[in-house]
Amino acid sequence: MNLLVCIKQVPDTETRIRISPDGRWFDESGVTFVLSPFDECAVEEAIRIKEAKGGEVVVVTAGPERAASALRTCLAMGADRAVHIKDEFVERADALTVARALAAVARGTPFDLIFAGKYGVGADNGQVGPMLAELLGIPQVTAVGALELGEGRITARREIEGAVEIVEALLPALVTAEKGLNEPRYPSLKGIMAAKKKPIETRDLASLGVTLPPAGQEPLRWVSLELPPPRAKGKVFTGDTAESSRQVVRLLREEAKVI
Amino acid sequence: MPGILVFAEQRDGQIKRSSAEAISEGRRLADRLTGPLTVAVAGSGIAGLGEEAARFGSDRVLLYDDPALAAYSSEGYAAAVAAAVEEAAPAAVLFSATAMGRDLAPRVAARCGSGLASDCVGLSVEGTTLRARRPVFSGKAYATVEFGGLAMATLRPNVFPRVEGRKPTCEILTRPLPIDASAIRGRVVRTEAAERREVDVSEASIIVAGGRGLKEAGNFSLVRDLAEALGGAVGASRAVVDAGWIEHAHQVGQTGKVVAPALYVACGISGAIQHLAGMSTAKVIVAINRDPEAPIFAIATYGIVGDLFEVVPKMVEEIRRLRAE
Fold it and tell me: With contact defined as beta carbons under 8 Å apart, do B52 and B79 qualify?
């Protein structure tokens, strides 16, 4: 079973976002970048399948220089090798450009199943996975909470509004991982040492036949990034708890009118 | 002028409420562009849905009605929407940001080579360019994006108003399935109702959430009691989901659900940044915490500094008393 996992390096979820001076991006200085939490589940699932059925786990990312450390994390977890599509600006490109670069790598890598996270935490798009499935002409199941591998097919459970869907797809297919799909392992010391010897192949966009759309011709471009307006100052009760509780219930009914 | 195409989602013979919102927003944008509004519906035995889809102001409804579309498949539905794009030649295509819309829209965008903005909370027309406003970092910031060429967007449910207004001239047309059914290699085979009859946090207008201040899993009953008294859903912080006190489906925050209820009650939740990102657009926030320095108080509409084991039962009692009056 050959498994390809698409990952993204993202700001840690504890990051306080500051807007960059140009007003279009966030200030990356002092930000800790990590493997996107949904991608951890994607990598874990691929490694578990490899452990059960044999084969190879290849991880791929499109990102700047720093993204290599997220690939190392995946290798330390147990992936076999990595491909780094290295470009300083690819992260700011539209999802379709990223999907095209990943598709070019996938076409040169044998795979039965492709994994990705439900979305890259931060941009919160959730587009690259299904776009990649479309470009490769394979079926997809997104936001998967439980996965079963059958003979030439998968059965996946995904949460929808107020219900659960069970989806069947023929291989090759693409799956995006929801949290809860599994409990991702922490890399062991042995894994971290082994990862240092595992290969990371570096590719550039041009070698994959992909170019960033010229300025002004992007299908989607960022105009600005802003912080949400601050919330109005609230009322905080510090006195007798029984009295505070009564007061707040009364305010919810009479002032806020929400109950 | 090119107009707007909206993909309307139906389940069990009903157009979803969030799709009615998307159609209404489509009407508003089509008027700004002085173009027509087309609505596409896919399914099997859906002839009766034409009228329902027409209720929110469309000029034309395209029904892709075929047994092969009875169950959702990204491949079959993407083929139907792509055919509708070809027929309507719109300036923009709108979906709702539901489980189905999030799965389908990127597939269609890749097929059409267009840009897609996910989970939009605002759309506007500047000249002939469409702009979208959308939360990033789960709402820690908002991005404004602009499209070049065909635009696609998924719209966050419960943000855009529904506006009824049937056009007497609306045409309802049936179209054939534009794909060979054998080319569909992945599809929904079964849908199961959620295990417990609980309100889903992502659709609830009132949420009561618990955090580490509850001290142990068994004390979640306090949160459930308050949720029940208020008729709301049960939410949780990442810490207690990671600790295994409650399932991930209840997690609110950056790697859980992003919610915007009318009322959010945080019990024993300190307010880590990744949690605040998931709930800070709630209309009213109540925070109950022993620590007066807890970050949650900075965004609370009403805060109670005190022991939640005293406060929560007292609130339940007060609410029941008010309800009984």
Answer: no
Q: Rounded to an integer, what distance in angstroms lies between the CA atom of residue B211 and that of residue B223?
A: 10
What is the pTM for the complete model shown? 0.93
- Structurally, how many domains does chain A consist of? 1
Q: Give the residue on A whose Cα is nearest the Cα of B192.
A: A164
Edge-to-edge strand order for the sheet containing B122-126? A220-226, B141-147, B129-136, B122-126
Distance from CA of B306 to the nearest CA of A (A): 6
The CATH number linked to A16 is 3.40.50.620
- Owning domain of residue A28: 2-208
CA B123 – CA A63 distance, rounded (Å): 29
- CA-based nearest distance B122→chain A, Å: 14
Is the ipTM beyond the 0.90 threshold? yes
Nearest CA in chain B to A167: B188
Residues B188, A167: C-beta atoms closer than 8 Å: yes
- A104-125 residue pLDDT tens: 999 999 999 999 999 999 999 9
| Per-residue pLDDT tens digits for B271-292 | 999 999 999 999 999 999 999 9
Residues contacting B261, CB < 8 A, separation 6+? B204, B205, B206, B207, B232, B279, B282, B283
Q: Is residue A252 part of a domain?
A: no
Taking the C-alpha atoms of residue B19 and residue B37, their distance in angstroms, rounded to an integer, is: 14
How far apart are alpha carbons A235 and A190 in whole angstroms?
Answer: 53
Alpha helices in B60-138 (DSSP H): 74-88, 99-112
B303/A14 touch (CB, cutoff 8 Å), yes or no: no
Whether the pLDDT of residue A5 is over 90: the answer is yes
- How far is A195 from chain B, CA to nearest CA, in Å? 27
Residue matched to tokens 């690259």: A128
What is the spatial distance between Cα A25 and Cα A223, in angstroms, rounded to a whole number?
Answer: 9
Confirm whether A215 is domain-assigned.
no
For residue A99, being part of any structural domain is answered with: yes
Asked, for residue A183, whether it belongs to a domain, the answer is: yes
- The radius of gyration of chain A from alpha carbons, rounded to an integer in Å, stands at 22
